Amino acid sequence: MVGANLKSETMKLMEKRSGMEAEMNAIIEQLCQPGGPALSANLVDSQGFPRADIDIPVVRAQRHRLAELKNDHKEITEKINANIQVLHSSRLTSTPKDSGVETNQNASVVSARASASLQNLVLRDSPGANDVDMISSVPFAMVDEIADASPAAEDGLQLGDQIVKFGYVKASDNLLQRLASEAQVNEGHPVPVIIMRQGAVVNLMVTPRTWQGRGLLGCHFRIM
User: Mean per-residue pLDDT for 178-184?
Assistant: First the structure.
């Protein structure tokens, strides 16, 4: 019953996190509209006066809300991770016994079944997979240039990788601007990235950071 209750709790946490991600995506899309303030652009003009082309109180409220959601998202993801580890451990330790004696053969069978169950859990439910539906995920960009020794290359991105999700950015409008903003706002912090590589789904953590080359990633995305 403990395992069932923990799984139920984890599923509810994932559902709550999906709602957070939807709200964050909506805020990011509004802030990153053409002519918008983006995620971190100045709210004053070159002369130091408040910009007249945006609603500054609304923008500040949106940015504040986005920061709150990111903190909450981090906490709930850590909780989900912890629950999955507990579920994994319980699956590996709950091996069957025959007349009070556990055989090596039974242990191997149960371990294999537990590993298979965990693999399914990771693919479908884990925060590493970002709850992406593997069947319906559609890449929206491709890595068509990548520099040697760049942050992108060192963190695992390769030429030809197709981007399904970059942080909170998924297929939508204003993708190049949103990708740039996502990298800037997360400078120095790992960003979860989901890619398609030779037909397989791959999860990476890419950290935008300064290096000897241009940009924070050292790669170029071509919108598909």
Answer: 88
